[in-house]
Amino acid sequence: MNTELQTLKQKRLKWVDSNRENGFDEGINRLLTELYPDNAHFIYELLQNAEDPQATTVQFKLTDSSVEFTHNGKRLFSFKDVESITSIGNSTKRDDATSIGKFGVGFKAVFAYTNTPEIHSGNFHFRIRDLVVPDTKGVKQSASNQQQTNFSFPFDNPKKPAETAMQEIAKGLQALGDNTLLFLSHIRKIEYTLPDAAKGSLERIDQGNGRIDIRVCKPNGEANVSHWLHFQKDVDVTDEDGKTKICRIAIAYSLVEEANKKRLFRILRRNHYM
Asked: Residues of the signal sequence (predicted)?
């Protein structure tokens, strides 16, 4: 473990020991892991974490005992990222008024399923213990593509049986709708594999002039394509500190061909009402 990481580990351990001494550890853990009513909400937090380094493709691999998440973001982890992801409320995104993860607590939702998430990105290979402690002991360097970032979440939270965790996450992945990709600027494809090796995916295809197609393929072989009209604009906003920032706003309309209206249009034209 490098000097910076060792120093950070010791600082975090002091915080953990102090919380335990005061009886705060259970309350803080419950507060952070139960922050969202949707148990599988961490799926969206992981997508947001992949969006920020401009990943275009993300992959979930679900097994009976864990789930892995991999993305091809352009930027790999730095020490500041390690410091941020192991902190509470001290995110590298806190100065970004447009970022969902600006308060640095969203990632903690994974602890509803795991006690020891593992991260491999660039030169950093570590697991997180006690919510905030980075630890490299026993962590092997990932054999995966070194230009990718990989998260591994073993189902070792005693409050969430592995079978329950697997079922909830499988349900969450299969529930990803076509609108999941609509308002992400960089991610174009989400792929996932279930424990029985069945695969599903969502893909965004930009057709130009604001036209977007979303192709959804379900593990059961069902596939459909939805069509959208998408508009976005950058505007100046003032944050709570009185600072002006650029915020991107977007809106999308579903394009649906209604057979009855199309048939009525043909009838009206045939009878010269139009």
From this structure: none
